[in-house]
UniProtKB/TrEMBL annotation:
Enzyme Commission number(s) of this protein: 1.4.4.2
Catalytic class of the enzyme: oxidoreductase
Xref: NCBIfam families: PRK04366.1
InterPro entries for the chain: Aminotrans_V_dom, GDC-P_C, GDC_P
Source organism: Sphingomonas quercus
Top-level taxon in the UniProt lineage: Bacteria
Domain Aminotransferase class V: 187-303
A GO MF label: glycine dehydrogenase (decarboxylating) activity
UniProt keyword terms in alphabetical order: Oxidoreductase, Pyridoxal phosphate
Domain Glycine dehydrogenase C-terminal per the UniProt entry, residue ranges: 384-482
Descriptive protein name: Aminomethyl-transferring glycine dehydrogenase subunit GcvPB
Gene from which this protein is expressed: gcvPB
């Protein structure tokens, strides 16, 4: 794309005789609108508002005031509004279509949740408001915590962590506090190959040495290898269950027994709780700590960096080390247990994860979701999610290779490899072909244990019609890839931008706008 003073110009000149190839003056294609940067639309010398002359007074900044232009472009209000609206239309969103991303649980967020989250009594309160004035909000945080404890069969909870990875950090800090309390300085955390990437990252961030445990040919943790490695230097084992191959770790109880016998703790990454909620209680499997992504299982929208919440549930052994603050019910009153009040009965708390109490908006959405589904409804969520994933797996395993297809039904996500694609074509070409079909691509090249992995999680909120349309689209692209259709190498062809150099974009991102050299002015 090039730009000159009169606006956008399409990237390539007309080819062939198809009128659709003739570039438009604006670069727009009907309702597909091009959008330059704010700096290119606006003008640093321009302002969108009329303000009177600033009254001259004595500066009280002691010479620290800004002495150069701030360099921000001025725009009219419609220009500013249109800019962001146009950009938002170029985004793929769960409200536009199915989001097949595996490992992310991109599911529809019922509008009821939004309505409840916007109630001013929840949305407009201040974290420092006197406790007596926010009893309803504390009651709601407490309620969500009780549901999570019941659903997981675990007695302790920390509501404050703000994401799954933050929950992992919270869990490992509690484990470290418990080990320190017994004077045990273990240094190693074991992480199986089928774990989510945040697990080893969290362990390393906490200062532990991370060691890998291999997966079996079935795509599950190799129990014998785990048992062989356990010892007095191992602080914890982090297991993702259901794992990132979309499989349930059937040996979980044996794993927990082995971990505990070695004096270590079992951390479970519960981001995939969507597949088992209402059916399996991780506490019954021997888990010591597990985070739950409210922004996955309990429907809060995420992606694009929106806020999340990663509450952590704890076993009896770890509950005393859970962080502050937390909500406690005393009679009919809700209190926040803080440093000043914790000493009496929660002296083991390892500290705090965040300044305040966590993400109120996520708690409200989760509460609305839980209460509107009820226990039986949540059980149906996991049943329908698993059914949808198996429908995708079995509808496509004749055209794509499912590496663990023989390991029995999958859980919430279907996994394929790039085996059998024609030479030169790979997973990325299928993903780009899906963009032309109007879908966000699936998760690619993850998990690492599968060559050219394609990981697809449909969730329970998609209808059979929506699943069939996605299956049809992926089937047609996969068939082209198997037949060696080289045009896939140039996909996407219908997107606003063609195939981008993603490596360069990641390694050499251009994050600063530089004013283009005005060639016309230079010539004059
Ligand atoms: C999403 C996810 C995480 C990380 O959660 P964030 O909220 O993105 O930090 C960890 N583990 C698994 C299995 C996940 O799917």
């Amino acid at each position: 794309m090039t730009i000159n003073q009169s606006g956008w110009r399409p990237e390539s000149p007309a080819q062939g005789n198809d009128p659709a190839d003739v570039p438009t003056y604006t670069g727009n294609k009907a309702l597909m609108l091009e959008e330059p940067l704010l700096f290119e639309i606006g003008d640093i010398g321009r302002t969108g508002v009329d303000l009177g002359e600033r009254p001259r007074g004595e500066s009280r900044l002691g010479g620290l005031e800004r002495n150069r232009s701030i360099g921000l472009p001025g725009l009219t209000e419609p220009e500013a509004v249109r800019h962001y609206t146009r950009l938002s239309r170029q985004n793929y969103a769960i409200d536009l279509g199915l989001f097949p991303l595996g490992s992310c649980t991109m599911k529809h967020n019922p509008r009821l949740n939004e309505r409840i989250a916007r109630l001013p009594g929840f949305a407009d309160i201040h974290p420092l408001a006197p406790i007596d004035t926010v009893q309803g909000a504390l009651a709601l945080i407490h309620l969500v915590g009780e549901w999570l404890k019941t659903l997981t069969g675990m007695p302790g909870i920390a509501m404050s962590p703000k994401a799954g990875a933050h929950g992992e950090l919270c869990g490992l800090l509690a484990i470290r506090a418990a080990l320190e309390a017994r004077g045990d300085a273990r240094q190693v955390v074991l992480v199986p190959e089928s774990a989510h990437g945040t697990n080893p990252a969290t362990a390393a961030f906490c200062g532990y040495a991370v060691e890998n445990i291999p997966a079996t040919d079935e795509g599950r943790v190799d129990l014998a290898a785990l048992q062989a490695r356990l010892g007095t230097d191992v602080a914890a084992v982090m297991i993702t269950n259901p794992n990132t191959c979309g499989l349930f770790e059937r040996d979980m109880i044996a794993i927990a027994e082995a971990v505990h016998a070695a004096g270590a703790f079992l951390y479970c990454d519960g981001a995939n709780f969507n597949a088992i909620v209402g059916r399996v209680r991780p506490g019954d499997l021997g888990v010591d700590a597990m985070h739950i992504n409210l922004h996955k299982t309990f429907s809060t929208p995420h992606g694009g960096g929106g806020p999340g919440a990663g509450p952590v549930v704890f076993s009896e052994a770890l509950a005393p080390y859970a962080p502050l603050p937390f909500v406690e019910k005393q009679g009919e009153h809700f209190v926040l247990v803080e440093e000043e009040t914790a000493a009496e009965h929660h002296g083991g708390a390892f500290g705090r994860m965040v300044a305040f109490h966590g993400q109120m908006g996520m708690f409200t959405r989760a509460a609305a979701y839980m209460l509107s589904h009820g226990a039986d409804g949540l059980r149906q969520v996991s049943g329908d999610a698993v059914l949808a994933a198996n429908y995708i797996l079995r509808s496509l395993d004749d055209v794509l290779v499912a590496p663990f297809g023989a390991s029995g039904p999958c859980m919430h996500e279907a996994l394929f490899s790039d085996e059998g694609l024609a030479g030169g074509l790979s997973t990325i070409d299928i993903a780009k072909g899906l963009i032309d079909e109007g879908f966000h691509p699936m998760t690619m090249y993850f998990p690492l244990v599968v060559h050219g992995a394609m990981l697809i999680e449909p969730t329970e909120t998609e209808s059979k019609g929506a699943l069939d349309q996605f299956i049809g689209a992926l089937r047609s692209v996969a068939e082209r890839a198997k037949a060696g259709d080289a045009s896939l190498k140039t996909a996407p062809v219908h997107a606003p931008r063609r195939r981008l150099d993603e490596t360069a974009a990641a390694r050499k991102p251009v994050l600063v706008w530089k004013e283009p050299v005005q060639s016309q002015a230079a010539a004059e």
